[in-house]
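User: I've been trying to design a sequence by hand for this structure and keep getting stuck. Would you show me what you'd pick, starting by listing the structure so we're on the same page?

Assistant: Good idea, let's start from the same input. This is the structure you sent:
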């Protein structure tokens, strides 16, 4: 049995280097009438993961959310170019009882994402 975790997690892999992307600042927000409200923020750990954007007992609402990754700072610190200084992933939560894992595959000149498990 898996231990409880944040209902929204992420994982960043630096595909150009072939390893986890450590130290990337990540922010989680939810859409509201006035724009976006921040729910949590953290940084990727040694494994490139962010398991703690929300508390483990947070119940999600069926709403639109956004993960923002500060990729520019990550690449600058490594002395590498970055065409995308920030990556924003907007997604919709439809089921309050599911876990949402959104990996980011990153390189200096491109990225992709998907819903993982």
């Amino acid at each position: 049995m898996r231990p409880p975790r944040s209902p929204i997690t992420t994982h960043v892999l630096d595909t150009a280097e072939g390893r986890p992307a450590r130290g990337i600042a990540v922010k989680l927000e939810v859409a509201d009438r006035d724009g976006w409200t921040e729910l949590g923020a953290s940084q990727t750990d040694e494994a490139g993961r962010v398991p703690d954007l929300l508390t483990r007992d947070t119940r999600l609402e069926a709403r639109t959310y956004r993960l923002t990754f500060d990729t520019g700072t990550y690449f600058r610190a490594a002395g590498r170019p970055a065409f995308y200084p920030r990556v924003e992933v907007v997604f919709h939560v439809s089921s309050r009882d599911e876990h949402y894992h959104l990996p980011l595959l990153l390189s200096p000149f491109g990225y992709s994402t998907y819903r993982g498990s």
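That's my pick for every position. To get oriented when you compare it with your attempt: Residues 31 and 64 are 6 Å apart (CA to CA). The helical segments are 71-77.
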